[in-house]
Design goal:
Elements: H1 7-28, H2 36-57, H3 62-90, H4 98-101, H5 109-117, E1 130-131, E2 134-135, H6 136-154
Antiparallel strand pairs: 1-2
Length: 158
């Protein structure tokens, strides 16, 4: 049975839309504020989704389609690694980047006032939501790994 050349890109685009919709819904509807690592973890999804949309709309096939799927697959595997790193930060296996948990100690009253008035981003080492003992970063790592492998193995199909 032959499949359409858009089957794999269409599947990846569908998953990407679902993942990003969930992330933005959790942020803007559910009130979960993302840390800086969470925001970085969205980048591979956004780029991959855009690549799949272009692949479908431009009806790429052959070497161009295989190259795009290779790039998207490697990008999603990098996203899986970033998600795994984030899980390691949450579990205190890895040190968080300074942008994730940096809290400055004010040395003047004006600095203290500015610190109190500013909205501090959430810390990367604090789990804001989990299901079955897996955090959002963990689910992102799993989904990124699966989509990355689908893209890499999907290069072989038509």
């Amino acid at each position: 049975m032959r499949t359409s050349p858009n089957t794999i890109p269409g599947f990846i685009l569908l998953v990407t839309v679902a993942i990003l919709s969930s992330a933005y819904s959790a942020q803007y509807i559910g009130g979960l504020r993302p840390c800086i690592l969470c925001l970085y973890e969205r980048v591979p999804w956004i780029v991959t989704g855009a690549l799949m949309l272009v692949t479908i709309l431009m009806q790429f096939s052959g070497p161009a389609r295989r190259g795009i799927l290779l790039f998207a697959g490697l990008l999603m595997l990098a996203g899986a690694a970033l998600g795994g790193y984030h899980v390691g930060v949450e579990q205190e296996i890895f040190q968080p980047p300074t942008t994730c948990s940096a809290t400055s100690t004010p040395s003047t009253l004006n600095e203290l006032k500015a610190l109190l008035e500013s909205t501090m981003p959430p810390r990367c080492d604090e789990i804001s939501w989990e299901l079955f003992g897996i955090s959002l970063a963990g689910y992102n790592a799993i989904a990124s790994l699966i989509v990355g492998l689908v893209a890499l193995f999907g290069r072989k199909s038509r």
